[in-house]
Amino acid sequence: MPSFLTLFRRDEIVQWANTEAVFGPGRQGTGYELAPVPDGLFKLVKLASYRALGIDKSVGHDCYVMRYKTGSCIPKHKDTAFFGSRHLRVNAIVQDAGRGGQLLIEDTPYEIRERDAYVFRPDLLDHEVTTITEGERLVWTMGTMLPV
Ligand SMILES: [Fe+2]
Fold first, then answer.
1. Cα-to-centroid distance, 123 and ligand 1 (Å)
2. Which of 11, 68, 87, 139 allows an S-S link to 72, with CB 3.0 to 4.6 Å?
3. Which CATH superfamily includes the segment(s) 7-147?
4. What is the model's pLDDT at position 84?
């Protein structure tokens, strides 16, 4: 999804990530970090994310900005869904790493540009991000579990 984030929204998210956002360690324990996006913030980006997932805001979902500092990565994995559900996720690149930080899905490299987004099934497809060797990568992410 090209230009999922406008320049203005992208800059707002970068600004937030560099100031008020509260980052904690990501799940894989490889150095990437997660900051929950509070209610009432980035409403238009959330609306676009609901649309991308085909849900409305009453459907359970998570919403984070992920930060990958230099040296962090995500090894190849799947994210299991609850039994009887499918896991759907939209990711938008807020800020590219200076170097590294290549997304691979099923071992295929994907060139997702800054401000673009993609929707995928993290429970079905292996995905990974190679080590960031320079700079800091920021990704907007919203996920949901839908009945099969
Ligand atoms: Fe994942």
1. 8
2. 68
3. q2cbj1_9rhob like domain (2.60.120.620)
4. 87
Q: Return the domain boundaries, the chain.
A: 7-147
Residues with CB under 5 A from ligand 1 (ion): 79, 122
- 16 CA distance to ligand 1 middle (Å): 23
CA distance 64 to 90: 11
Going from the Cα of 89 to the center of ligand 1, the distance in angstroms, rounded, reads 9
The strand pairing partners of 49, in sequence order, are none
57 C-alpha to ligand 1 centroid (Å):
22
pLDDT digits (tens, 9 = 90+) for 56-104: 999 999 999 999 999 999 999 999 888 889 999 999 999 999 999 999 9
pLDDT over threshold 90, residue 26: no
Q: pTM for this structure?
A: 0.95
Best CA proximity match to 147, nearest among 73, 82, 95, 70: 82
